[in-house]
Write a structure and sequence with these properties.
The complex is a heterodimer.
Chain A: H1 10-35, E1 45-50, E2 64-74, E3 78-85, H2 86-97, H3 109-134, E4 138-140, E5 144-149, H4 150-162, E6 167-175, E7 182-190, H5 194-201
Antiparallel strand pairs in A: 1-6, 2-3, 2-4, 2-5, 3-7, 6-7
Helix pairs in contact in A: 1-3, 2-3
Chain B: E1 3-5, E2 10-15, E3 19-25, E4 29-35, E5 40-46, H1 64-77, E6 86-91, H2 107-122, E7 125-131, E8 137-141, E9 148-151, E10 158-159
Parallel strand pairs in B: 1-3, 6-7
Antiparallel strand pairs in B: 2-5, 3-8, 4-5, 4-6, 8-9, 9-10
Classes of the chains: A alpha+beta, B alpha+beta.
Amino acid sequence: MSEEYGNLDSSKLDVLRELGNIGAGNATTALSQMINKRVDMGVPKAELIKIEKISQILGGEESLVAGILLGIEGDVEGMMMFVQEQVSAHHLVNLLMGRDLDDFSEFTEMDLSALQEIGNIITGAYLNSLSALTGLKIIPSVPNMAFDMAGAILSVPAIEFGKVGDYALLIQTSFGGTGEEVFGYFILIPEANSYEKIFKSLGM
Amino acid sequence: MALIKVGMADLKAVKYPDNLTTLGLGSCIGVTLYDASAKVSGMAHFMLPDSTQIKNNENKAKFGDTAIDELLKQMLSLGANKSRLVAKIAGGAQMFSFGGKNDLMRIGERNAIAAKEKLKALGIRLIAEDTGSNYGRTIEFMSENGDLHVKTIGKELKVI
């Protein structure tokens, strides 16, 4: 890849940010339809972050997080991750299952597959909007979910960004009504040449 | 006595009684080197196997080859003797399993191999490892006796 995030000029960064915002917005809508409830979305925050710091974004390297990772093929290649603290994952499942929001009992098999499905839908919605905006073909693979220490889960995107440079772009989103906050980060990790394709498709 | 934290793409060399730790190793590798008689310990947390494959490679601690070289250099300057050094490695997990032969996903394994090859090339003996599988690891190195504590979620503490 010829460009690394640290060197991107501000207009290109704005574009990536905006794509992230729209993607996160679509993901929220998809979630709202799925749980048949209004879901508010906070203003997504786009952050350019040093890769060494990426493992600290969710309450420190050892905090327990849920990560959903899928591969991307087509015109844009790479990976996409949706990651959230375990508390948020519980909130999300409880919202979906119509349970008491602060029910932190261990996830059942059913909960896990629900969580995977939510991940599938919101990452799919995110990528669809990216595809629609750019006119590029983006084909997601079946997502894979893992629960572990934040450092370990986030080492996967950190390593991918690390191949190119020292920065990663994170889109933080929050959704849920008041007091039902579910926070999560979308991390889009395009491979070599894919950025250029994205910019080119937008006439930049 | 202090517990010195080593971040991602970071390395540190210390003298007894300071201990070293790195938190939440996933596909990255934690390498420890130890000179038991000089009581000099070192730890590196690298992300990628090979600096020569990457254009932007200024951070030595990010790559297996250059991280181990740099760690060795810092330990020698603290009084370690290269011929007495022994190594342990941990990490190199595959956090997500995808079918097929996606090279991207095998980075943990490649990192572990890179560490072993580099140590071999330097003539440093690898005496213990806890690598691979699909879970994260926090490691803590005891400068008093060279024990490496490996902590994982939902499992017993392992000492290698």
